[in-house]
């Protein structure tokens, strides 16, 4: 199976930081956000990854490439621990790139992967959603996909007032954490939302989804919505939703990014105690 990571967004909610730095390259504790996503795919056994980039995203390609000058300096300094970390990044997977030339929405970004995916089943992981779990979230979806032989989307419960920010699933429970999708709606008004099950940025598809994306009419802002293509597919073939086991960190805005850094830093032994002391106001540094 292949993985597709859309990372072509402009990151306007993070300006001015993203004027010259892709949102996906903003650090979360000590590595860029997109590395967490790539590592999730690799941990699930997926090593053929296509990243959909856009203008100004060259640093993503540079990051996952070798850095001969830096590695040479580290070797001269006998800093083999850091050198090993850098070499691991460039050896994570076979990573390919294609550019989404116009910001036409998530559906269009996924469609850009059509030639690379070819006739294979594939996973989609959004580049600005970090999910921490014992079993990789995308691996949980792949298991369900293989068991049901049908596309699966990851969902999680959100507060009702938050449904306006997500694609929302109308689902019928058919197993532990598993729902048969009856319908989906993108960012519905609170009073019209069919549930509080929100799509959480992880999907597993058959290549047939591309035909439905191609038929979707552009929506608000002229964008092609992936949710609309999934809904169209679901009218002909069954789609399932899986409430994954894990914790999702949304990097949708500056405050969410700050919270994610703090929460993930608190999970690290080398930072936890000093950070807690700082937060309690027990240190002046």
Structure, described:
With 285 residues, the protein is of the alpha/beta class. It has a single domain (2-252), classed as Spore Coat Polysaccharide Biosynthesis Protein SpsA, Chain A, CATH 3.90.550. It has eleven helices and 13 strands. The chain has helices at residues 33-43, 58-63, 68-76, 80-90, 106-111, 114-117, 137-148, 209-215, 226-234, 254-265, 269-279, and strands at residues 2-6, 27-28, 31-32, 48-53, 94-99, 122-125, 129-132, 152-157, 167-175, 178-186, 197-205, 240-243, 247-250. It has a nine-stranded mixed sheet with strand order 5-4-1-6-11-8-12-10-9. A two-stranded antiparallel ribbon has the order 2-3. A hairpin with a 2-residue loop joins strand 2 (27-28) and strand 3 (31-32). Helix 8 packs across helix 9. The longest helix is centred in the middle third of the chain and has 12 residues, at 137-148. The mean pLDDT is 91.
């Amino acid at each position: 199976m292949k993985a597709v990571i859309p990372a072509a967004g402009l990151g306007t909610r993070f300006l001015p930081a993203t004027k010259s730095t892709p949102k996906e390259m903003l650090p979360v504790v000590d590595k860029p956000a997109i590395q967490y996503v790539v590592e999730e795919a690799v941990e699930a056994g997926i090593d053929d990854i296509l990243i959909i980039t856009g203008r100004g995203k060259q640093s993503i390609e540079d990051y996952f490439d070798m850095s001969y000058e830096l590695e040479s300096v580290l070797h001269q300094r006998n800093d083999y621990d850091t050198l090993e970390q850098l070499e691991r990044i460039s050896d994570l997977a076979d990573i390919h790139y294609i550019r989404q030339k116009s910001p036409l929405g998530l559906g269009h970004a996924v469609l850009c992967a059509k030639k690379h995916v070819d006739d294979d089943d594939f996973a989609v992981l959004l580049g600005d959603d970090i999910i921490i779990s014992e079993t990789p979230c995308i691996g949980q979806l792949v298991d369900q996909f293989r068991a049901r032989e049908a596309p699966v989307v990851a969902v999680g419960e959100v507060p009702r007032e938050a449904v306006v920010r997500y694609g929302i699933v109308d689902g019928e429970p058919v197993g532990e954490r598993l729902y048969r999708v009856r319908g989906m709606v993108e960012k519905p008004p609170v009073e019209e939302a069919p549930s509080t099950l929100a799509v959480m940025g992880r999907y597993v598809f058959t290549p047939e989804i591309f035909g439905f994306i191609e038929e979707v009419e552009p929506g608000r802002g002229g964008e092609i919505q992936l949710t609309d293509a999934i809904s169209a597919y679901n009218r002909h073939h069954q789609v399932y939703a899986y409430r994954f086991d894990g914790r999702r960190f949304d990097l949708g805005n500056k405050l969410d990014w700050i919270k994610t850094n703090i929460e993930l830093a608190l999970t690290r032994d080398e930072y936890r105690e000093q950070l807690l002391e700082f937060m309690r106001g027990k240190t002046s540094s």
